[in-house]
């Protein structure tokens, strides 16, 4: 799979989960895909200070990304500065 195909699969996964985040006043942005196995995202809006954002990241975002792109091993939330 090319980098472009992988990125499009990850973007499709984020589009699938985005409405759930937006319904709570948040959002998510794809920052990078490294080595074809690690996705870096940034939770935005209400998701930044949310106490359950790590659970959202693991059970929602990571699971959805792995469903679309099984070769992804890690999803990391990069905190805004």
Automatic annotation (TrEMBL):
Q: Which GO terms describe its biological process?
A: iron-sulfur cluster assembly
Record's SUPFAM superfamilies?
A: Fe-S cluster assembly (FSCA) domain-like
Q: Which domain of life is it from?
A: Bacteria
> Matching Pfam families, A to Z?
NifU
Cross-referenced InterPro entries, in alphabetical order?
FSCA_dom_sf, NIF_FeS_clus_asmbl_NifU_C
Q: What GO molecular function terms would the record report?
A: iron ion binding; iron-sulfur cluster binding
Q: In this protein, which residues make up the domain named NIF system FeS cluster assembly NifU C-terminal?
A: 10-76
PANTHER family xrefs: IRON-SULFUR CLUSTER SCAFFOLD PROTEIN NFU-RELATED, NIFU-LIKE PROTEIN 3, CHLOROPLASTIC
**Similarity comment:** Belongs to the NifU family.
User: What name appears for this protein in its UniProt entry?
Assistant: Fe-S cluster biogenesis protein NfuA
Q: Which organism is it from?
A: Leeuwenhoekiella aestuarii
């Amino acid at each position: 799979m090319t980098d472009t195909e992988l990125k499009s699969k990850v973007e499709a996964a984020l589009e699938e989960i985005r409405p759930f985040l937006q319904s709570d006043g948040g959002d998510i942005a794809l920052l990078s895909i490294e080595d074809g196995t690690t996705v870096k995202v940034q939770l935005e809006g209400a998701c930044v200070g949310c106490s359950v954002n790590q659970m959202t990241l693991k059970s929602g975002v990571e699971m959805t990304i792995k469903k679309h792109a099984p070769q992804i091993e890690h999803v990391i939330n990069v905190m805004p500065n």
